[in-house]
Write a structure and sequence with these properties.
eight-stranded mixed beta sheet, 15% strand, 9 helices, alpha/beta, 278 residues
Length: 278
């Protein structure tokens, strides 16, 4: 059995790597040929094919996606998508559903292969070491992309959780949809079964990637899994125009969206009392 798992892991890794290189070459070609004429059109062409690549990657990894609340997402509109966050797999499963630009932590750009793909596909990298009253550069980028008609997905917990519940949301990014006058589309990601067994505290670390876990070791073990079931719940859009007291609006809106997403998460524990909103 262990031999079979090792063989499956190797085969998946090879296919995943080939698909990743193909994606990188394809998007680089789009970048070099179209970007000189129109940066916006270049990004939209690249994102148009995003769900195809996302579906390919989750198929390679044995991930089965179920979507509820599809009626809340209109494909002819664009949104600031807000989601909970448990794993790097969240990027693949949401990318398989939405043509979307990702907001990622700044060190992702240095990851082997995945970092290059993230950069070529126009991901917005967040460097939280930049503090002070001056507006964060990534906030301006998000607003610009939203105003140009892109879907942008944000994981406002700021880090991945262990799957026990939804961590407190950072409030800064909630100024982006209000300033761009774009609706927020809250979604809840739930990993429901791992190797056909219910997601629980006994097996969650096979999928959730958090704390001091190393990416390479976690991904190596994940490749051995036979099947991962995940459900994405799309909640009704929320739209608010920016108010004069935008700081309090950001705080209130972050709590409101947090509670919507958390309400769709089974066994949710309210962790806001353990960490202040920032």
């Amino acid at each position: 059995m262990e031999l079979f798992k090792n063989i499956r892991a190797v085969v998946r890794l090879v296919i995943f790597f080939i698909a990743g290189i193909t994606l990188l070459i394809t998007d680089t070609f789009i970048l070099l040929t179209i970007r000189p004429f129109s940066k916006t059109f270049c990004r939209k062409i690249s994102l148009y094919f995003g769900p195809f690549w996302g579906k390919l990657f989750i198929t390679i990894l044995g991930i089965h996606l179920t979507v509820t609340g599809r009626e809340n997402w209109r494909k002819n509109r664009h949104y600031c998508i807000i989601s909970n966050h448990m794993s790097y797999l969240d990027i693949l499963v949401t990318g398989a559903l939405f043509p979307v630009l990702f907001v990622s932590r700044h060190d992702v750009k240095y990851w082997p292969l995945l970092g290059a793909i993230a950069w070529v596909r126009g991901s917005i990298f967040v460097d939280r070491s930049i503090t002070g009253s001056k507006e964060r550069p990534y906030v301006k980028q998000i607003i610009e992309y939203l105003e140009k008609g892109f879907n942008v997905i944000i994981f406002p917990e700021g880090k991945t959780s262990n799957g026990e519940g939804v961590l407190p949301f950072k409030k800064t990014v909630f100024s982006c949809p209000t300033r761009a006058n774009i609706p927020i589309l809250p979604i809840t990601i739930q990993y429901t079964r791992i190797n056909r067994e219910p997601f629980s505290s006994q097996n969650r670390d096979k999928v959730c990637w958090y704390g001091e876990m190393t990416f390479i070791d976690h991904f190596r073990k994940l490749l051995k899994l036979s099947r991962i079931d995940v459900t994405i719940t799309i909640h009704p859009p929320v739209r608010e125009k920016q108010e004069d007291d935008w700081l309090n609006q950001n705080r209130r809106l972050s709590v409101k969206i947090h509670d919507i997403i958390a309400a769709g998460y089974p066994g949710f524990n309210d962790t806001r009392t353990f960490s202040s909103l920032s």
